[in-house]
């Protein structure tokens, strides 16, 4: 492990944690007592911060120092072969919701494959604040209801919506509906 590997790990982790807190560089500088210039260099993988600087940044971000300097938390690529894709929802009429892949911890991103036979509906409670969802209809017409608003999405249509409100997916037609969905849980 080289010094550059550690510098890149610190840069990646500080950027991610700052984004998770939704802090500007100025806000992190104020909370940590580390100058904005030092933080900019650190987030770009430049510079050689001393231990005291790293401790102040870790304290401000609410994490252990080891979290900042851990070279590889997760591999750059994680594979999800078919055997790891899990059907997590089965509707009364045979509809399915299959989790194809997901990341962790927060912010997390999930990719889903959904099938709804005619007449089936999938109600969903509001997710955590800030959650965003994207659907793309691969086959049929999906009826999407978000916080009382109803939209009908024909084949090929995509929609981005807030997932932190009650929402539902329905098939009000006589043909099957298939769609893929991504969920970003901030």
Using brief descriptors, characterize the structure shown.
alpha+beta; four-stranded antiparallel beta sheet; single chain; 27% helix; Jelly Rolls; six-stranded antiparallel beta sheet; 33% strand; 186 residues; 434 Repressor (Amino-terminal Domain)
Percentage of β-strand residues: 25-35%
The ordered H/E elements are HHHHHEEEEEEEEEE
For the report, how would you describe the main beta sheet?
A: 6 strands, antiparallel
Q: What is the helix tally?
A: 5
Q: Radius of gyration over alpha carbons?
A: 21 Å
Q: Superfamily at the CATH H level of the largest domain?
A: Jelly Rolls
Q: How are the strands of the biggest sheet laid out side by side?
A: 1-2-3-10-5-8
Write the CATH architecture name of the largest domain.
Sandwich
Number of domains: 2
General form: elongated
The CATH topology of the largest domain is given as Jelly Rolls
Mean pLDDT: 88
Low-confidence region ranges: none
Query: End-to-end distance, in Å?
Result: 31 Å
Query: What is the helical fraction, as a range of percent?
Result: 25-40%
At the first level of CATH, the class of the largest domain is Mainly Beta
């Amino acid at each position: 492990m080289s010094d550059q590997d550690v510098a890149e790990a610190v840069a990646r982790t500080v950027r991610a944690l700052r984004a998770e807190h939704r802090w500007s560089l100025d806000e992190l500088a104020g909370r940590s007592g580390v100058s904005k210039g030092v933080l900019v260099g650190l987030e770009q993988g430049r510079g050689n911060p001393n231990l005291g600087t790293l401790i102040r940044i870790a304290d401000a971000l609410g994490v252990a120092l080891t979290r900042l300097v851990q070279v590889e938390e997760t591999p750059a690529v994680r594979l999800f072969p078919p055997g790891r894709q899990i059907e997590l929802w089965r509707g009364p009429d045979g509809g399915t919701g299959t989790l194809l892949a997901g990341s962790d911890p927060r912010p997390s991103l999930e990719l889903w494959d959904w099938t709804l036979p005619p007449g089936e509906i999938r109600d969903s409670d509001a997710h955590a604040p800030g959650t965003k969802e994207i659907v793309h209809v691969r086959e049929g017409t999906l009826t999407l209801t978000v916080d009382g608003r109803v939209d009908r999405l024909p084949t090929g249509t995509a929609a981005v919506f807030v997932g932190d409100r009650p929402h539902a997916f329905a098939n009000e037609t006589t043909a099957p509906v298939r769609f893929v969905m991504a969920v970003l849980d901030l």
